[in-house]
Amino acid sequence: MEIFRAPRVTLIARPEFIEPEHLRVQWQGPASAGERLAEFAGRICYMSQNNPANRSTAEYLENIKKQGHGSVLEHAVYVLLIEGISRSCSHELVRHRAGFGYSQLSQRYVDESHAAFVLPPALLGDAPLEAEWEKEVTEAQAAYVRAVEALMQRYAWITDKVHRRKVAREAARSVLPNATEVKIVVSANARAWRTMLELRTSEGAELEIRRMAIACLRVLQREASALFSDFEIYVADDKQDAARVAFHKV
After folding, report:
1. What pTM, to 2 d.p., does this model score?
2. How many domains, in total, are found in the chain?
3. In a designed cystine with 55, which of 60, 62, 67, 228 is the match (CB 3.0 to 4.6 A)?
């Protein structure tokens, strides 16, 4: 049985920017496609492609965030594969709707007899608590396996094996804990990511989703630093990573 002690976040899609030849911008400084796209969208509003202030893309987007003109960030969409989070965590994540899209592993179709589980951050480092938790999730997984086997026999009259497995698994999953690991593909525009990250990286956020949000923030800062540069990661009083943002609700 695999136990996750930290999430795994992978960037799987980023924006592609195709600059129109008749509206060339006088770019300054290096930038990613998503950053260029946001700047181009902002400059369209005022037809300032000649860059009169001679700003780099990073400087331009810093001013955009300072002024709160977050609408231009909505054009840059980033897609992350998030693994190693619990179903309770993913159910908190999917509450963020505006600007987000989700595709999540289905327990109704996937065999969870070899499922992984996510150790809650609050238990990390406490050997007795970890041992008790592992015992409980092991027992729950065993109960799931027994239920699937019994239900497969009960519904043996269903000739379609795929449908029979679905009937068995959708009932048996009821005994699996919230700690069962899930994989989810999450797409969101940069403005939506910023809103989620501001809420979920704060010290008041639940520990697991805070840990996940920090992992997402690190990936997004590497990919498009100018869009997320005003987030500062620090160690909070509870010894866990948290983040603060300079420009709120951009």
Report:
1. 0.94
2. 1
3. 60
In a domain, 187, yes or no: yes
- Asked, for residue 201, whether it belongs to a domain, the answer is yes
- pLDDT per residue as tens digits for the range 60-93: 999 999 999 999 999 999 999 999 999 999 999 9
The answer to whether 27 and 50 have CB atoms below 8 angstroms apart is no
> What one-character DSSP code corresponds to residue 108?
T
Does residue 62 fall inside a structural domain?
A: yes
Rounded Cα distance between 99 and 104, Å, is 17
Q: What is the pLDDT of residue 1?
A: 82
CA distance 200 to 99: 16
Task: Report d(CA 10, CA 222) in Å as an integer.
Answer: 12
Active site residue 173: no
**What CATH number does the domain containing 60 carry?**
3.30.1360.170
Segments forming the whole domain that contains residue 18: 10-80+183-245
Q: Which residue has the tokens 């060339």?
A: 24
**Domain membership flag for residue 31:** yes
* Complete DSSP assignment for 70-132: GGGGGG-EEEEEEEEEEHHHHHHHTT--TTEEEEE--TTTS--TT--EE--GGGTT-HHHHHH
